[in-house]
C-alpha cells in the first residue's frame, strides 16, 4: 500500500458515520523502491495534479509512522512550486510501500490488516447494513 | 490481378510478416495502437467483418445489405434478434460482425522493425511469424467439405517453390531472431547455424542429421466432418523439411495452422501457416495446441491455470481507447487480479484497483505474486491493489473524483 493510497482510504462502516479517516498506520514491514524509471517532468506533472486532493496532515502522520519524518507540517505555496520538493514528494507518495501492517479507524478502532501490500478493506455484512443500497 | 482458380496467396514479398488474432470489436483500435509505435508497411484484415445496414434500428427487417466495415460509435442489442449485437455509426447505419464460435479476427501486418521488438508490443497478443496466407476456393459453387478436399487444396499451397524457398525460410529467420533475443531458454539446435540454411528442403534430403523439433497446432472452428488432428496428419509432411522431428512437448518450433470459412465468400476458406513467437513450451501454459487462442504471454508471463482473466493485450487496447493523458489515475473498482490496473504503467497512467476477491483467502496471494513479478521482471511500477467491496468503496469523499479523468 502506497502512502498515496492511504491518503484516500477510510473506514466506510456504519459505525464510523463517515468519519473513519485518516486511518492510523501501524508498520510491520516496509519496502522502498529506489528507482522507478519515471522522468522528473512526469512526476512533477502528476504531483501537481493530485496536490489539491491530498490531505496533508494525514499524509504527514502516515509518513511519520512509516519512518519518514521529513515532510513539513504544512504545504506552502513555495513548496508546491519547488521542483526538487515535488520530485521528493512523488517518491514518498509512490515508492514507499507498507508490506505488512495494520490500518486502524480513528473513530471505532476497527482494524484493517495490510498483508503483502494489499489492505483488506472488506467489511462484514453487519458493519455496513446502514450504508448498503 | 488474375488469381489461380484454387488458391490465392495474400502474402507479399516483404520478409517480416506477422499475424495475430484480435478480438472482434477492437480491430480498429489495434491498428492505431501499433501504428503509434512502429511503422506498418502492410495491414490486412483477413475476412473482414460482415457489415449490414438497416434503415431503421427500431424495426424488424430481414433486408440486410452488406457494406465494408467501419468504426462503430455505439452498440445496441436487438430484442428481436437476440443472437447478435448491433454496432452503429453516426448515420445510424448498422455495422455488425456475425457472431460465431470464434470471436477473433486475423490481422496480418508487415513491418521493418526488428523482429525482436514486435512480440513485445503488448496489445498484439499471440503474435506469430506469418509463413503464408491463402484463400482456398477450388469449387465455384461450394466450399470445401471433406478432409481430402481440404488436404488437397492445402497441398497445392505447400508444395510450391515459393513456400519452400521463400516463405517458410523467411518466417523461420524471424522466428529464430525472436527466440534468440527474447526467449529465456532455447535448445542448442536453435543456436546451430547449419539448421537454418536458405534451402531447408534440399539440405534435409542431403543429410541424416536431425533438424529442429516441432509440433503442429491447428486453430479452426469445430467441424463434424473431421478433427483438427485429422487435418494436421493429412498435411504434416508438406509443412516442414524432412529432417525435422516431431516432439509434442519439447519442441523448438510450434507451427500453427489457421483455418476458417470466409465470412464474405460462401465458396472459400482462409488458410494460413505461421510460427508461434511466444515460448509457450517453456512457460508451462497451453499453446495453440488446445485449438484456441493461447493465454497472453507478454511479460510477465502468466501461467495461472484455471483462472480466467482479461488478456493484458485486450486491456492495453481498452486503455488506449480511453485516451487519457500521461499521469492520469485509472481506478478499476472490480480489478480482479489487477490486469487493467497493472497495464496502466505502460501508458504512463497510474493504476489503482480493488476487488472483493483480493483477500488473503482468495486471490490476494496470486495478485501479490503477479505484482512482484511485474516489479522484478520488468522494473515497472505495479499498480496499487486493495481488497474492497465495489458497492461500498472505502474512499473518502474529497477524492471521489480522484480516479476520474
Automatic annotation (TrEMBL), chain A:
The lineage of its organism: Eukaryota, Sar, Stramenopiles, Ochrophyta, Bacillariophyta. This is Multifunctional methyltransferase subunit TRM112. One of its GO terms (biological process) is tRNA methylation. Coiled coil: none annotated. GO terms for molecular function: methyltransferase activity; protein heterodimerization activity. Keywords: Methyltransferase, Transferase.
TrEMBL record, chain B:
Coiled coil: none annotated. It is found in: Cytoplasm. Keywords: tRNA processing. Its main location: cytoplasm. Gene3D superfamilies: Vaccinia Virus protein VP39. Residues 209-262 form the THUMP domain. GO terms for cellular component: cytoplasm. GO terms for molecular function: RNA binding; tRNA (guanine) methyltransferase activity. One of its GO terms (biological process) is tRNA methylation. It holds the Pfam family THUMP. This is THUMP domain-containing protein. It comes from Fistulifera solaris (Oleaginous diatom).
Amino acid at each position: 500500500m502506497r502512502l498515496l493510497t492511504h491518503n484516500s482510504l477510510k473506514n466506510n462502516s456504519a459505525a464510523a458515520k463517515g468519519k473513519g479517516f485518516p486511518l492510523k498506520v501501524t508498520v510491520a514491514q516496509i519496502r522502498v523502491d529506489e528507482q522507478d524509471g519515471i522522468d522528473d517532468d512526469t512526476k512533477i506533472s502528476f504531483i501537481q495534479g493530485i496536490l489539491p486532493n491530498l490531505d496533508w496532515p494525514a499524509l504527514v502522520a502516515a509518513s511519520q509512522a512509516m519512518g519518514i519524518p521529513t515532510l513539513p507540517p504544512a504545504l506552502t505555496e513555495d513548496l508546491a512550486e519547488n521542483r526538487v520538493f515535488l520530485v521528493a514528494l512523488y517518491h514518498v507518495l509512490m515508492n514507499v510501500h507498507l508490506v505488512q501492517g495494520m490500518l486502524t479507524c480513528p473513530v471505532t478502532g476497527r482494524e484493517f490488516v495490510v498483508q503483502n501490500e494489499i489492505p483488506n478493506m472488506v467489511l462484514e455484512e453487519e458493519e455496513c447494513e446502514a450504508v448498503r443500497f | 490481378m488474375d488469381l489461380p482458380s484454387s488458391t490465392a496467396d495474400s502474402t507479399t514479398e516483404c520478409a517480416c510478416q506477422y499475424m495475430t488474432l484480435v478480438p472482434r470489436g477492437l480491430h480498429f483500435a489495434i491498428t492505431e495502437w501499433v501504428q503509434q509505435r512502429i511503422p506498418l508497411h502492410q495491414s490486412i484484415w483477413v475476412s473482414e467483418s460482415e457489415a449490414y445496414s438497416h434503415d431503421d434500428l427500431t424495426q424488424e427487417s430481414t433486408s440486410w445489405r452488406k457494406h465494408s466495415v467501419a468504426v462503430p460509435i455505439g452498440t445496441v442489442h436487438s430484442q428481436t434478434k437476440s443472437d447478435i449485437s448491433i454496432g452503429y455509426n453516426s448515420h445510424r447505419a448498422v455495422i455488425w460482425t456475425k457472431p460465431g464460435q470464434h470471436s477473433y479476427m486475423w490481422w496480418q501486418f508487415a513491418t521493418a522493425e526488428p523482429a525482436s521488438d514486435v512480440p513485445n508490443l503488448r496489445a498484439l497478443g499471440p503474435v506469430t511469424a506469418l509463413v503464408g496466407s491463402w484463400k482456398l476456393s477450388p469449387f465455384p459453387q461450394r466450399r470445401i467439405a471433406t478432409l481430402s478436399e481440404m488436404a488437397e487444396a492445402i497441398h497445392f499451397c505447400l508444395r510450391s517453390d515459393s513456400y519452400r524457398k521463400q516463405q517458410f525460410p523467411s518466417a523461420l529467420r524471424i522466428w529464430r531472431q525472436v527466440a534468440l533475443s527474447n526467449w529465456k531458454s532455447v535448445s542448442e539446435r536453435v543456436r546451430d547455424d547449419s539448421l537454418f540454411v536458405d534451402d531447408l528442403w534440399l539440405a534435409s534430403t542431403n543429410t541424416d542429421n536431425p533438424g529442429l523439433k516441432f509440433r503442429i497446432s491447428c486453430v479452426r472452428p469445430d467441424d463434424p466432418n473431421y478433427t483438427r488432428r485429422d487435418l494436421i496428419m493429412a498435411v504434416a509432411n508438406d509443412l516442414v523439411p524432412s529432417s525435422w522431428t516431431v516432439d509434442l512437448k519439447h519442441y523448438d518450433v510450434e507451427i500453427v495452422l489457421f483455418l476458417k470459412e470466409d465470412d464474405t465468400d460462401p465458396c472459400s476458406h482462409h488458410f494460413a501457416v505461421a510460427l508461434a513467437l511466444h515460448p509457450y513450451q517453456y512457460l508451462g501454459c497451453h499453446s495453440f495446441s488446445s485449438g484456441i487462442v493461447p493465454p497472453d504471454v507478454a511479460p510477465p508471463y502468466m501461467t495461472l491455470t484455471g483462472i480466467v482473466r482479461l488478456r493484458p493485450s485486450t486491456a492495453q487496447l481498452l486503455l488506449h481507447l480511453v485516451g487519457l493523458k500521461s499521469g492520469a489515475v485509472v481506478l478499476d473498482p472490480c480489478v480482479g487480479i489487477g490486469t487493467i490496473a497493472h497495464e496502466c504503467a505502460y501508458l504512463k497512467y497510474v493504476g489503482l484497483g480493488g476487488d472483493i476477491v483480493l483477500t488473503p483467502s482468495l486471490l490476494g496471494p496470486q495478485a501479490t505474486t503477479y505484482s512482484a513479478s511485474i516489479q522484478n521482471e520488468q522494473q515497472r511500477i505495479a499498480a496499487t491493489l486493495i481488497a474492497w467491496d465495489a458497492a461500498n468503496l472505502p474512499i473518502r469523499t474529497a477524492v471521489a473524483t480522484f480516479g476520474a479523468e
